[in-house]
Specification:
Helix content is about 40%, strand content about 20%. It has about 100 residues and is α+β, with helices and mostly antiparallel strands. A two-stranded antiparallel sheet has the order 1-2. It has a two-stranded antiparallel sheet with strand order 3-4. A hairpin with a 4-residue loop joins strand 1 (about 40-45) and strand 2. It starts with a helix and ends in a 5-residue tail after the last helix.
Length: about 100
């Protein structure tokens, strides 16, 4: 129930700590945007900023998405698979407004 600004700040802190300490991070959220940030942004210690990873750059972190429905896993895999899923429930998470 956080406002978007506070939610983004918290995700930025998680990304920063993950990358500075070179550790795994688990984020449980109902917001696709948070997972997208975890998968596609890194902390740059030189600029001290969170930066989007360039598409051509090798991904130093492997992010797995898990979507649950009524206590069952209905999707597990990378963000690309999440966005290409044909499952209507998964689409509601990955593409709000999709039927």
């Amino acid at each position: 129930g956080l406002d978007p600004i506070t939610a983004n700040r918290i995700v930025h802190l998680i990304i920063k700590e993950r990358d500075l300490r070179n550790t795994a991070a688990i984020l449980v959220t109902h917001r696709y945007q948070d997972g997208h940030m975890m998968a596609n942004f890194r902390y740059n210690p030189n600029s001290e900023e969170i930066e989007m990873v360039r598409p051509e750059a090798p991904m130093p972190v492997s992010t797995r998405f898990v979507v649950m429905n009524e206590g069952r896993i209905v999707f597990e895999g990378p963000e690309s698979g999440l966005l290409q899923s044909a499952d209507p429930y998964v689409l509601k998470f990955a593409r709000p407004g999709a039927s």
